[in-house]
Amino acid sequence: MSMKPTVIAVALALIGAVSVASAQTANTPDVSPPWQHGQNNDAVNRGFEFTVPDADNLADFHGNPDHPALALYVGGNYFFAMAPLVKAFEAKYPEYKGRLYWETIPPGLLVKQIQAGGTVTVGNMTWTVKPDVYLAGLKAVQKQVDAGLLQAPAVPYATNTLTIMVAAGNPMHIEGLSDLSKPSIKLAMPNPAFEGIARQIEASLQKAGGKTLETQVYDTKVTQGSTELTHIHHRQTPLWIMQGRADAGVTWQSEAVFQEQAGHPISHVDIPANQNTTAIYAGAIVKDAPHAQAAQRWLNFIQSKEGLAIFEHYGFKPYVASQSGS
């Protein structure tokens, strides 16, 4: 059953409708996550709504955890694409309407949650949702297939490249990766301990300036305090830049595209192809997934023309079998 183009258009319009061009300072409420104004939640009955940005927002947990029909553990690099993806998926499979649950924390932390039986604690709240699908970088997915947490095969579907996220207007006049070693530039950089993107960033830093540049950014400047390591780079990097806490940070280019589309005072500096690194996104069904049929339907959907069209809206590219990446 194929979807009409208008379904994709409507789904994309919903996420695009959250433009917050008026967010100019760190004191503007819209600067704080969540940034989708409820769109990244497909629950039909939301009861009493209580969201306080900067205090109570649970920005990376979506939907209703009470007996979902499909639970997705999604590496957070495309949290912004999930609303239109879910809406388009539900248009194709109406039986799942309002019954998806998904998380978008870093892939390494999602693995820890899988190992904990799906239980997670945020602040004063603890809940359990066992995942059906795990989605992250291809190598990360294959690693967990080999470890027995996921079922083969690892299914690749889209690719992404890196960029340097900066404040609108690029006030620090950053021109490339080599500038990130300057002591005067405050960086927000993903933590290598559990954020997969850090591996790709380290590779790009070495391409741009050898081991010396990587050491300056990820060692010397951390010690000096001019590089601050994030825990959820896809939320913290733009937030810290808008707060003036950081001047720049390396992220996936799709994340900068989203911030610009949302009207936030964020821009980006392109990284040349010979210094860039390509990520391949993949997914696999979790071993003993509670909803195996729904899981397979999701993997099929994100490889489809309809699913890939949503990814391409944010600058992702479809995976081609001949590609190599992380």
TrEMBL record:
Top-level taxonomic group: Bacteria
Signal keyword on record: yes
Signal sequence interval, chain numbering: 1-23
Keywords tagged on the record: Signal
A Pfam match: SBP_bac_11
InterPro entries from the UniProt entry: ModA/WtpA
This protein's name: Substrate-binding domain-containing protein
Lineage summary: Bacteria, Pseudomonadati, Pseudomonadota, Gammaproteobacteria, Lysobacterales
